[in-house]
Design goal:
This protein is 30% helix and 20% strand. The protein is an alpha/beta fold. The chain is globular, with a radius of gyration of 15 Å.
Length: 128
């Protein structure tokens, strides 16, 4: 009898909240937590373009004044106790056994996560 292989694991999409929010000068600095909530809600509604909802697991990493944003169905929110970049790098390294895509424009972070095998894409991937 032939065994059926398990279905592929969804791509872990880790979104650098501070970097993505900061990529558009829309006044986000006046309400960092509100900007993170809007990004979370946009991710929950639209997901990652080009990928079905069941093909991705979205994690939004927030830091600083944006800490405390709650998770919603479709988007898990992780509040970094310190540097958001450190948490993103740790999440990417911990998931090295599955496909990982990090959404950021931060060059230093891009180098850190690609060293763990993660792919990277820019903020425009998830911003309108």
């Amino acid at each position: 009898m032939t065994e059926i292989p398990p279905p592929p694991r969804p791509v872990l999409v880790i979104v650098d909240g501070a970097n993505v929010v900061g990529s558009v000068p829309d006044g986000w600095w006046r309400d960092r937590k509100g900007a993170a909530v809007r990004l979370r809600d946009r991710l929950a509604e639209h997901g990652v373009p080009g990928r079905a909802a069941d093909e991705v697991e979205i994690v939004l990493v927030v830091e600083g004044a944006a800490r405390g944003v709650e998770s919603v169905p479709g988007v898990r929110v992780e509040s970094a106790p310190g540097s958001g970049d450190d948490l993103i790098a740790a999440l990417a390294a911990a998931a090295a056994d599955r496909p990982v895509l990090v959404v950021t424009a931060d060059r230093g972070l891009r180098h850190r996560v690609t060293a763990t095998g993660a792919g990277v894409t820019g903020p425009r991937t998830v911003r309108p």
